[in-house]
Each structure stands twice: as C-alpha cells, then as structure tokens.
C-alpha cells in the first residue's frame, strides 16, 4: 500500500489502471534482478522472468506488440507473455523478429502450439536473413495443462458425460507429450512450458524433456517433499485407452489433440481460452480496485 501511495504522489494525473501497470513494471523489474545471476550463468537458457501483457488487449495485435516491446526493455532477462489468440499470433511473429523472447500463454492445444512455433520460426528466419542475433533468445510456448483438464471436467458435468475421473487428469499431459514429439520431429526452436498444475503428473510425466516446468511455489514445495521417483517419463505414451476414451467422449479434447482440430480463427472461441481470458481480465480489474481503494478511500460509516 505504501508504494501505491507514493505512486499516487509521483503520478498525480495517472488513472488507477496506469498506477496498477506501473506496479507490475516495478515488481517485474525487481524480480528479474533476482534471477539475473542464473540467466548470466546459463547463457539465457534459464533465469528469465515472464511479464504478462494486458489480457484485455487479446484482440489487438498492434497494441500487444507495442506493449511487448516496452516490457522487453525492462530487463535483459525479461520474457514477455502474449496470448495464443488469433491476434496474438501476429504479435508473436513481429516481437520475435524484433529480438524479443516471447512466452505464448492462454494456450491449451496442439493447433495453438503449432501456430506459435511457426510464427516464432518466421520471426527467427527474418532475423537470420538480416544477420541479426538470435543466439541469446529463449522463446517458449506454454501449455496450460491443468486448465485443459479443468475445462473437460466442466464439460463432463455440464453434458452429463460418464468417464473414469482419473482419465480427466491425463488430458493435458497427453496433449503436451504429443506436442513435444511433434516439436522434436520438426525441429522448432522454442521450448514447451508446462503450467497450471493440478496433479504431480503435470511435472513427473514431463521429466526428461527439454522443457520448462513452471509450478507455483506451493506445488514446488509439494514436489520436493514427495516420494515420486525422479526418472525420465517424457517419452512414455499416455495409455491408449485413456486417449481413446477422451477422444470419443469430448469433442474439445479431439480439437486440442489434433493438429487440424482448430483453425487460427477459432482460437479465441475455444472454451478454455474464454474461461482463462475472463479470469485474467478479472485479475486486472481486481488490481485496479486495489489501487482505487488507496486512491479514493471508502468513506467511513457512522
């Protein structure tokens, strides 16, 4: 609260939203500094901090691109999150061409990942043709594995689908593993990142892969204290009967797990995308409200 009060003095004409985003910049800058030694020691492969572009811009390619460029300059180890929406794909290519390391977010499906990978490749190839540096770049594409599971669980309740509940815990893992195999076959130059953890398979089944694992602190503590054997499982296929059952009973799993399952024009209307964007946008409004409560304190009641 103290920093908000100070910013209100320093930025005397700023709106609550402008104050909120300044807080995001400052927190991100300070956090990136904590990771900088790892970034330097590992040549940029690790030690990057992700900063989220405004999710309310998900339909505006140019606005996302411009905010990405600004955020990328906050620190040398900054990686900027752009949603894998229809408009986001263009912004991802252009930001990559400009030398920005991107983190594609709001992403749940194989088709989205391929579109992101192709956009990054186009951006990298354009840089190479102009003899621009790419060695220090570290783009990633996030699959929000737990949020895909969440969406299918929601559909199971809504549509009265009967299925072994354990199968629904494997949907995101199945999509991640299939995408990882395809990325290796095609030689895409960005790594996959797993996020939105709901069970230990979202970590344990991905061990051994050249991937990024991004668990919240609580899950990291849980993993460290677990008795799950740490061994490579990335190449172990999800049991075919699970994939077959998920494919048969959920059209959205078929769409998520098939390269041609979604067109770029359909990314924004995918259920998990809508659900996640709404939550991310709500979080923006919550931060604005926090600033508002300091900017315009509620009157005391008698």
Mind explaining what this structure looks like?
The protein is α/β, with parallel strands linked by helices and 302 residues long. It is 54% helix and 9% strand. The chain is built from twelve helices and six strands. The chain has a six-stranded parallel β-sheet with strand order 1-2-3-4-5-6. Helix 3 (61-72) links the parallel strand 1 (49-52) and strand 2 (78-83). The radius of gyration is 20 Å and the shape is globular.
Number of helices: 12
CATH topology: TIM Barrel
Strand order of the largest sheet: 1-2-3-4-5-6
Through-space gap between termini? 25 Å
What is the CATH homologous superfamily assignment? Answer: Aldolase class I
Overall pLDDT: 96
Outline type? globular
**Which segments are poorly predicted (pLDDT under 50) over 5 or more consecutive residues?**
none
Rg (C-alpha, Å): 20 Å
Number of domains: 1
Task: Look at the helices and sheets and give the structural class.
Answer: alpha/beta
What's the total number of strands?
Answer: 6
Q: Could you estimate the helical fraction of the residues in percent?
A: 40-55%
In CATH, the architecture is Alpha-Beta Barrel
Q: Which class in CATH terms?
A: Alpha Beta
Amount of beta strand:
5-15%
Query: Mind summarizing the main beta sheet?
Result: 6 strands, parallel
